[in-house]
Amino acid sequence: xxxxxxxxxxAGKGTYAQGIKNxxxxxxxxxxxxxxxxxxxxxxxxxxxxxxxxxxxxxxDQTMIELFKQRLTEKDCxxxxxxxxxxxxxxxAQALDEMLESxxxxxxxxxxxxxxxxxxxxxxxxxxxxxxxNRIFHVRNVPPKVEGKCDDCGIDLIKRVDDNEETLRKxxxxxxxxxxxxxxxxxxxxxxxxxxxxxxxxxxxxxxxEMLKERFG
Length: 217
Ligand code: AMP
Prior knowledge:
single chain; binds adenosine monophosphate; two-stranded antiparallel ribbon; 9 helices; alpha/beta
C-alpha cells in the first residue's frame, strides 16, 4: 500500500502517518523530517535548507526530487509507504510518477486533509515535536503522557522554529499557490480522497484506519 498524505501545514499529515504506519506495517517518509536531518549536519545544503524552512518557503524542486529518488529505493520502502509532505508542486508530482514507474510501483490513494485556516493557526502554537524520533504532539489535542517529554524517548519536546503564526501564514500561501493544484492532478487520476481534518485527531485516525482496512485489508 503506497499512500500520499496531502494537506496544508498543520493539517495533520504527520500525526496521521505516525498513527497508521505501525498498524499497516508501512514506512512514513516525511519530507520535512528528511530536510531537518540535513539541517542537523550543518552542510552547505543544510544551511540553505534551514534559511528556507525558517522563512516558510519551499525548498527547490530539484533538491526535493533528488532526495526522494534516493529515499524511495531504500529497503524499508519496499513494504509500502506514506509520503508525508511530498510532492508539494506539480514538477515534484510529475517526477514522482517517473520515479515510481521506473521502480514498478504505483500510488494507491492520495488523502487530502481539509482544514480551515483558523484551525491551522490554532494548532500551530501548540505543536511540539520530539527532536530524536520526530513524533508529533500537541499540548491540548495530542498531549504527551508527561508534560513536555516524548512518550517514546523521554526527552524534552521542542517547538519548531517555523511553528509560529507569521511563518504559518507564509507556508499556507506557498501551499495555496504551489501545492493546491495537485488536488486536481490527483483527482483526474481518480486517486484523491478528501478527509474532513477539522475534527479531533483520534476521531480522524479511527475513521482512517477503518477506511484503509476496508479498502486494502
Ligand atoms: P513539513 O515538516 O512537512 O511541515 O515541512 C517543513 C518545511 O520543509 C516546509 O515548510 C518547506 O519549507 C520544506 N519542505 C518540506 N517538504 C517540501 C517539499 N516537498 N517541497 C519543498 N519544500 C518542502
